[in-house]
Amino acid sequence: IYLPKDAGSGLWLQQDDFLEKEIQPKTALPPGTLPLETHWTWDRILRSAYIKHADVLLAFFLFEDQFPAEELAKHYAFYEPLTVHESSFSHGVHAVLEARLGYAEGAHAHLNKALLADLSNLHGDTAMGCHLPAMALAWQALIRGFAGFRLEKNKFALNPALPSAWKSLRFALSFRSCKVQVHITRTQCHVINLTGEEVDFRIYKREYKLAPWGEVIAVRK
Q1: Are 162 and 143 in contact (CB under 8 A)?
Q2: pLDDT in the model for residue 140
Q3: Beta bridge partners of 83
Q4: pTM for this one?
């Protein structure tokens, strides 16, 4: 994957000459301009700095172990104001990244837009078919975002952070030959091993060893 980097700002760029464009946030657009696809020609869209979905941020989403948290925060602050979310997977990706950064309320707003992509016809094209990426990424926003699931050194880890509107989140997760049931509240994370194999994992950045058919309750500090 070719990902150019600007030496001066340290930013990974959408394209080599991206910073030569007029960089203005989407809030500078006149009311009624969005969606751009229905108001601007593609030539004008491509010459602008506005992005259908932030490809650079997608790299942070797909290869999270390759970028430190401060790099994600820096690039999210730069690209999110330029992203007009005219892609069915854009809101779901942003929900995961905002949850990872600790912006639980912003992540919740992006999740709702991913969930409502078809139910509320947000893009005006639901009649053409369901937006499967939005559905899949809504699930990932729940598991990879608010539950904070990720792989760390070949172990699964959970670092939950729920938005203020939620009391709990419950789901089952299969990890290789192991299956666990997870119940997250605002103060703790309860994990039950549903198989006969021992599982090493992390919750809230602390190490745990889950016995076969056992359970553990980790309290958020």
Answers
A1: no
A2: 93
A3: 51
A4: 0.90
The helix, strand and coil proportions of the chain, stated in percent and rounded to the nearest 5, come to 40, 20, 40
| CA nearest neighbour of 58 among 81, 91, 36 | 91
pLDDT tens-digit profile of 4-32?
A: 999 999 999 999 999 999 999 999 999 99
CA max distance for the chain: 60
Contact status, residue 191 vs residue 215, Cβ threshold 8 Å: yes
Q: CA 216, CA 190: separation in Å to the nearest integer?
A: 6
By C-alpha distance, which of 127, 93, 124 is closest to 111? 93
Is the distance from CB of 131 to CB of 88 less than 8 angstroms? yes
> How many Cα atoms within 13 Å fall on the side-chain side of residue 119?
7
- Distance of alpha carbon 203 from alpha carbon 213, whole angstroms: 18
Helices (H), 49-194: 55-62, 69-79, 90-101, 104-119, 132-140
**Hey, how many other C-beta atoms are within 10 angstroms of the C-beta on 210?**
20
Going from the C-alpha of 29 to that of each of 21, 24, 75, 99, the distances in angstroms are 15, 9, 21, 27
